[in-house]
Write a structure and sequence with these properties.
Helix content is 47%, strand content 16%. The strands form three sheets. The chain has a six-stranded parallel beta sheet with strand order 2-1-3-4-5-11, with helices on both faces. The chain has a four-stranded parallel beta sheet with strand order 7-6-8-9, sandwiched between helices. A two-stranded antiparallel sheet has the order 10-12. It has 13 helices and twelve strands.
Length: 332
C-alpha cells in the first residue's frame, strides 16, 4: 500500500493524498474520501520517508520539570497533546525530575534537529539556560514562565498573590505569613512572593520580608515550614501558601497544634487541586487555566512552524480566586 494506491482507491490525485498527510489544503469532499480509504486499509505513511521529503519530523519535544509533581503539569501536557494530535504531530516528553542540568541536556538533544520545535515548561533561567535558549536552531515556546525575547505563555502570578493576600487582609486579619518556594523559580517563587509583600505593604506592614519561609513543593515541607514560620514571626492569624500541597501541610500542622481553621488562622493555597476540595476545611485557592495555557503554547509553536519566525509574542493569562472554608466561606 502506498500513496498512489490510496489515491486510486479514493478517486483523487496522489498530490491530494500527499497534502492530506501533510496537513495541506484539500477540499472537504476529497479529505473525507481519503480518510475513509485510510481507515479501511489502516495505512500509515512512513515517518522516515516524510522526514526525508519535507525535512520535518512531525515531532515536538516537550521539556517539563516533573510530570507527577502537580496537577498543573499534567493539565498543560493534556492541552499540548490536544493541539498536536489534531495537527498530526507527535510528542516526545522529557521529564527532568526538577534537575536543571537535565533541562540543559534535553535542550541540547532537541536542538540537534531531532524535533521540529520545543515547548519548554520552565522553572529557572540560569545563565547557562539563557545561552542554550539563544542557541536553539529550532523554534521554542516557553510555558509557565516569561523571559524577554522569547515566545511564551505564562500566568499572572504577581497579581494573583497580591489579590489573595489582600482578600485575607480585608477580612480583618493583620498578622500574615507566607510560605514561598525558592525564588530562582521566577513565577512560582519570586512573583508570588512579590505579590504578597506588596499587598502587605499597602496595608501598613513595613517589613513583610521578615514574614516568610521557603519550602519545597510538598505537603511534608509545608508541615515542617509551618512550625518554622510561626516560630520566626510569632502569632499569625493568616498564612498564604505558594501551592495547595504546601497549604495542606500547613493546615495539618496547625490542627496538631490545636489551632482552628479559619477561626484562629486563615490559610490559602494555589492550584485548585483535587485535595483542596476534599480536605477539611476545604482550601481557598487560586485557579489557573493550565490546560488552556498548554493549548495556546502548542498553537503558538505550530503557527511559527507553519508561517515562519514572527515577532516575539508574550501571552499572560488570568486567574480566579476560589474561596472556600479555610477563609471563612461556609463556616458558621
Amino acid at each position: 500500500m502506498n500513496i498512489a494506491e490510496i489515491a486510486r482507491r479514493a478517486g483523487v490525485s496522489s498530490a491530494a493524498v500527499s497534502r492530506y498527510f501533510n496537513n495541506g489544503y484539500i477540499s472537504e469532499e476529497k479529505r473525507e474520501k481519503i480518510r475513509l480509504v485510510v481507515e479501511e486499509t489502516g495505512y500509515r505513511p512512513s515517518l522516515q520517508a516524510q522526514t526525508l521529503r519535507t525535512r520535518k519530523t512531525k515531532l515536538i519535544g516537550v521539556i517539563l520539570p516533573k510530570i507527577d509533581s502537580a496537577v498543573a503539569i499534567g493539565s498543560m501536557v493534556a492541552g499540548i497533546l490536544s493541539v498536536l494530535n489534531e495537527k498530526g504531530y507527535q510528542l516526545l516528553l522529557a521529564d527532568t525530575q526538577n534537575n536543571p542540568a537535565k533541562e540543559l541536556e534535553y535542550l541540547s538533544v532537541f536542538n540537534e534537529k531531532q524535533v521540529d520545535g520545543v515547548i519548554f515548561i520552565a522553572t529557572v533561567f540560569t545563565n547557562a539556560h539563557k545561552k542554550a535558549l539563544k542557541n536553539m536552531q529550532v523554534p521554542i515556546v516557553l510555558a509557565g514562565q516569561a523571559l524577554p525575547g522569547f515566545h511564551c505563555v505564562y500566568h499572572d502570578d504577581y497579581h494573583a498573590f497580591y489579590d489573595i493576600t489582600r482578600m485575607v487582609l480585608e477580612k480583618g486579619r493583620k498578622r500574615l505569613g507566607f510560605v514561598s518556594v525558592f525564588h530562582q523559580d521566577q513565577a512560582a517563587g519570586l512573583e508570588r512572593y512579590r505579590g504578597f509583600c506588596d499587598s502587605m505593604r499597602e496595608f501598613g506592614e513595613k517589613n513583610p520580608e521578615d514574614k516568610y519561609v521557603i519550602a519545597d513543593f510538598t505537603m511534608e515541607s509545608g508541615y515542617e515550614k509551618a512550625g518554622e514560620l510561626l516560630t520566626k514571626s510569632g502569632g499569625l492569624d493568616g498564612i498564604v501558601c505558594a501551592t495547595d500541597s504546601i497549604a495542606i501541610g500547613v493546615m495539618q500542622y496547625l490542627k496538631e497544634q490545636g489551632m482552628k481553621i479559619p477561626r484562629d488562622v486563615m490559610v490559602t493555597g494555589h492550584g485548585d487541586s483535587v485535595l483542596s476540595k476534599v480536605i477539611t476545611p476545604t482550601l481557598t485557592t487560586i485557579r489557573y487555566s493550565y490546560e488552556e495555557s498548554g493549548r495556546l503554547a502548542a498553537s503558538m509553536l505550530l503557527e511559527i512552524l507553519e508561517k515562519g519566525e514572527s515577532s516575539v509574542r508574550e501571552m499572560k493569562m488570568g486567574y480566579e480566586i476560589v474561596e472556600k472554608e479555610s477563609t471563612g466561606v461556609g463556616e458558621s
